[in-house]
Every structure is written in structure tokens, then in C-alpha cells.
Amino acid sequence: MIALEPDCVAAVVALLDDPGEAALSSAYELGRTALGQGLGILDVMSLQEAVLKELVLSAPHSEQERMARATSSFFREFLSPFEMSFRGYRDANRDLKRLFEELNAAYLELQSKQSQLVQSAKMASLGELVAGVAHEINNPLAFVLSHLGTVNACLNKLEPGVKGEPGGAQPPAGDESLKYWERARTRLREIEGGVERIRDLVLRLRTFSRLDEGAQKRVSIKECVASVLTILDHRLGGRIRVDTHFGFPDMVECFPSLLNQAIMNLVSNAIDAIEGPGTISISTGADADDYVIAVEDSGAGIPEHLRHRVLDPFFTTKAPGQGTGLGLSITYSIVQRHRGSIEIAPGPTVGTIVTIRFPLAVRPSPDPNPDPSGTR
Q1: CA angle 86, 91, 97 (to 5 degrees)
Q2: Domain end: 180, 209, 238, which one?
Q3: Which of 8, 176, 315, 340 has a 20 to 30 Å separation from 111 between CA atoms?
Q4: How far is CA 112 from the centre of its chain?
Q5: Does some domain include residue 104?
Q6: How many other β-carbons are positioned within 10 Å of the β-carbon of residue 284?
Q7: Pairing assessment for the beta strands 278-287 and 352-359 based on DSSP bridges
Q8: Whose CA is closest to 268, among 309, 307, 316, 305?
């Protein structure tokens, strides 16, 4: 027997005698007491059954229906505190669930931002290293270029004596000066070609190492792509051909350091996607009010059911230990910084096409001398 049963029976009888507010208030207070004592819904159902048995079954047949209605009214009011409590629990649970979801989202965003900061710090360190290397190479390179000019001038002065004056004295028979002079000329031309390649490399390294992430400025997209391909050249080797298609315009307003990083991430992913020989195609140019950079590879492609997840931080389709899952996520953040979007689609036959687009800050006039496309 539940302790409140006699009180409930008395309250139902009082409700029969005076079905007013006072009796209903008594039911409500008894309900609060039951809730305070820790009674649950099953306990209340047992209590209601006990009261029904005591009052309804023992009453004359003519009174049983009235007794049942009074008992039902009593327990409807009796359950009000329980209902209010349950509603409070439900609201609290809803708030807790919402707070949990917000906290979880904030945690994931913080984790992503932390990883992106680490990656950005690595890129900044790489930029500083590349800038330092380019500077250290540039100083002796200027020295070499200067003295190459001096050597060329000296060889030009020696040319008449080595080859002989036209219609005048000729070098004595058996003199090998001309042979050595021509060899020196050949070697000098080869040195000049090598030094020019080094100078071009230094220029591309300096382009890549821009440390002005906070500054938005107009840069050459062709130079950005060329600098990225220089950095990744050791991974291309001889197995991957890179085709470039540079459209109009070439000069675009952007965050150069960040855009370099985004392009490098896309090309790096394309390289990883290709096993064995393959091709990477890089296309740039304006599309209405947007600027578009598309990187297409001839790899295996991304399964359709995974395509919507590749922008999630830490998600990777690579084997364990071979990828952080941050490349495309960071690229997406960079594109958002440019108020743009990123699209991932299957290639026409194989592979994947990743396209980033962002609004052109200024509509330029047509370029009378557009940059040619090429193959690397």
C-alpha cells in the first residue's frame, strides 16, 4: 500500500461532496507531495487503481459512475506537477542537446582551426626558408652573371688574334688556340644557359615565398602556378605531365600567399591521386564575374559517396599515415577568405576536377597579348 492512498481516498470523497477549487487544489498539493517523495508514473497508476477499488467497487451501482468520474478528475489534477516536471525535464534536455551540439561544433571548428594554424605556420616557415635560400643563391648568382659578361668581353677581344685577321696574318700551323677558344665559347654558352635556369628558379622561389598573407594585391596567376610547379617538380619526376591553359586575365587581385598554398594543395592532391604515368591539367581564366582555377588529374577519382566528405577536416581517402586530411579543408578555408567556392566533380573519363572560383574585384580590360598555354 502506498502511504498517500488514505489521503487520496479522503480527497476524492471531499471532491464528491464539494467539486470546487479547494478539492482540486488538494489534489494538486498531494501530487506535489508524491513527486517530492520520488513516486513515478507507475506508482501513480497503482495508487489510482487502489483508490478505484476502494471507492468505486465498494459503492452502490448507481454511484459507481460518479465515483469513477471524481477519481479521474482528482488524478488528472494530481498528475499536473508531474506533467510540469516532465515538461521542464524535456525543455532542459532539449537545451542540453542544443548546447552539446553547439559545443561539439565549436570543438570541431577549434580542432580544424588549430590544425589549419599549424599548417599555415608550416607554410610560413617554408616560405621563410625558400625566401632565405633564394636570397642566398641570388647574391653569388649576381656575381657569376657579372663575371660572365666580363669573360665574354675578354673572349671577344681575343677573337681576332685567335682566328687571324681577315686578309692578314694567320695563326701559325699547329696552333691549337682556336680549338681551345671555341671550346671555351661553347662551355661559356652552356654556363650561361645553366645560370639562366638558376635565375629563373630563384625568381619562382621568390614568387612562392610571399609572406604577405594579410595583404590583398594584384599578382600574376601564371607566376603563381609556375612557382608552385617549381616547388613540386621533384614529385612530378618524369612520370606526370602538366598541361597549363592560362586564360584572360592573368593579373588578379587576391591574397597571394594563401592562393599559392591553395594551388599547391590541389596540385599535390592531384599528384597523389596518380599512380604511375599520368597527366595534370591546370586551367585559369575569368568566367563572367568570377575567376576560375581548375585542376584536373587522370587518377582513379573520388567515389561519389565520399565526394561530399572530402572537405571535412581530417577526412582523407589516402592510406593511414599518408595524409592528414587537411589539404582540401585548408583550401576550402582559403577560398572562403576570397569569398569564393570550391567544386569537386569527376573528370570526363577518369580522375577528378577540382575547381575554385572567387569574384573578380575589378573587371579588367581585354589583354592584347594573352599569356600562352604550355606543357611542363
Answers
A1: 120
A2: 209
A3: 340
A4: 8
A5: no
A6: 24
A7: unpaired
A8: 316
| Domain-located, residue 57 | yes
Helix or strand holding residue 217 (H, E): strand 217-220
Asked if residue 229 and residue 313 are part of one domain, the reply reads yes
The residue assigned the cell 612562392 is: 208
Domain match, 249 and 347 both? yes
The number of helices, as runs of H, and strands, as runs of E, in the chain is 11, 8
Q: Which residues pair with 16 in a beta bridge?
A: none
Residues 321 and 295 in one domain: yes
In a domain, residue 43? The reply is: yes
pTM recorded for the entire structure: 0.49
Q: How many domains, in total, are found in the chain?
A: 3
For the domain that residue 276 is a member of, what is the CATH number? 3.30.565.10
**335 is in which domain, residue-wise?**
215-375
Tell me the C-alpha distance between 260 and 254, whole Å.
Answer: 10
The tens digit of pLDDT for each residue in 74-87 reads: 888 888 888 888 77
**For residue 179, what pLDDT is reported?**
79
* Sequence letter at residue 256: P
Among the listed residues 256, 264, 262, the one whose alpha carbon sits nearest the alpha carbon of residue 280 = 264
**Residues 335, 297 share a domain:** yes
DSSP characters over 292-307? EEEEEE-S----HHHH
| Last residue of one domain, picked from the residues 209, 235, 259 | 209
Rg (CA), the chain: 41
DSSP conformation letters of 269-326: HHHHH--SSEEEEEEEEEETTEEEEEEEE-S----HHHHTTTTSTT--SSPTTS--S-
Report pLDDT for 168. Answer: 47
- Smallest CA-to-CA distance from 70 within 13, 2, 8, 10 is with 13
State the angle between helix axes of 327-337 and 80-163 in degrees (0 to 180), rounded to the nearest 10: 90
Q: What pLDDT is recorded for position 131?
A: 67
How many other β-carbons are positioned within 10 Å of the β-carbon of residue 123? 19
